[in-house]
Specification:
By secondary structure, the protein is α+β, with helices and mostly antiparallel strands. The chain contains 9 helices and 13 strands. It is 37% helix and 25% strand. The protein binds ligand DP6. Ligand DP6 binds next to helix 5.
């Protein structure tokens, strides 16, 4: 047992092509709509979990500094599940480092919770189990369920009460050489986090019901386009899913507006590159002001150049489909 009390796991961030926004079961953190994502290289989080009898409480060190109480409480919730699964009563030290700039405009919570679930189970001596760890990660943060798997991944909508809901892989990273160009448009953390933002949208937006009704067909389009490697089909459905989600949030009271002027400038530039220059590029944006452009590898240099030169863009970063959790690191 002693030898298996430490484990290090690597997981990657992901970007949703079909968006998750809203919950069908808040207690179990089940999504109200299906979502489809790409797991992204090289946006890596590396997490070590060490169960230690000398510890009086769980400790969480994030990027070299002690994490805030709220963040540590979310980690303890995951550790409690692993302690119940394994019968191990020890407290743990969790050390997590993002190998990509957290100001890159891509959430590290998905990679962070995916790595934590896999590392905590491995450290407790439990066997690797993608589906179980995806369900655990989903309970912590739904988008994290998708980061357990590599390549192209779907998280179905949850039927209330379904504690086992997990993501499923649609195709490996090698399926399609796509690229995501991130156009960073602002510094700092987002004003309203996803969990609070979607709760507020559900309670106050008159468009929430319409969003939940429309989302499955958009996800089906993304899925079909992905499997057929049909970029315009994926791109069109992805943009509509993105803008429907944001429109729904904007109609909340008070309005939830994640876009900034530079966000709109990049969206307009991407449309122009498509319509005037004939490039295969489509946009998406999460609960923040940054834009992520989806394109084929053959166009990535030109698109990166164009977006870097767009007014309000602070920097760009290119990501590509990558693997799921890597467990044998220690
Ligand atoms: C806009 O997974 O961060 O990025 O389950 O409440 O932790 P919680 O939410 P989270 O939401 C992600 C929302 C999104 C779209 C997506 O990734 O599908």
């Amino acid at each position: 047992m002693t030898s298996s009390r430490t484990a290090t796991v690597r997981a990657r961030a992901n970007i949703a092509l079909a968006k998750y926004w809203g919950k069908s079961d808040v207690g179990l953190n089940l999504p109200a709509v299906p979502s489809i994502s790409i797991t992204l290289d090289p946006l890596i989080t590396e997490t070590t979990v060490r169960f230690d009898e000398a510890l009086a409480a769980d400790r969480f060190v994030l990027d070299g500094a002690a994490a805030r109480e709220k963040e540590t409480a979310r980690v303890t919730k995951v550790l409690d599940v692993v302690r119940a699964q394994s019968g191990l009563g020890l407290r743990a030290e969790v050390t997590s480092a993002n190998r990509f700039p957290t100001a890159a405009g891509l959430a590290s919570s998905a990679s962070g919770f995916a790595a934590l679930c896999a590392a905590a189970r491995a450290a407790a001596g439990l066997a690797a189990d993608d589906a179980l760890e995806s369900a655990m990660a989903r309970q912590a943060s739904a988008s994290a369920a998708r980061s357990i798997y590599g390549g192209f991944v779907e998280l179905p909508a949850g039927v209330p009460g379904d504690a086992k809901l997990a993501a499923t892989p649609l195709a490996p990273a090698s399926h399609w050489p796509l690229r995501i160009v991130v156009a960073v448009t602002a510094e700092g953390r987002k004003a309203v986090g996803s969990t609070d933002g979607m709760g507020h949208t559900e309670r106050t937006s008159p468009y929430y019901r319409s969003w939940v009704e429309a989302a499955p067909a958009l996800a089906a389009e993304v899925r079909a386009g992905l499997l057929a490697r049909d970029l315009p089909r994926v791109g069109r459905a992805m943009e509509q899913s993105t803008l429907a989600m944001h429109a729904c949030a904007m109609a909340a009271g008070p309005a939830l507006i994640y876009f900034r002027p530079a966000t709109l400038a990049v969206l307009a530039r991407i449309r122009e590159l498509r319509e005037t220059d004939g490039l295969g590029v489509w946009a998406t944006a999460d609960a923040g002001p940054h834009v992520k452009a989806l394109c084929h590898v053959s166009d990535v240099e030109r698109i990166t150049r164009e977006l870097a030169a767009t007014e309000g863009v602070l920097r760009t970063l290119v990501a590509e489909p990558g693997p799921g959790v890597e467990r044998q690191l220690s």
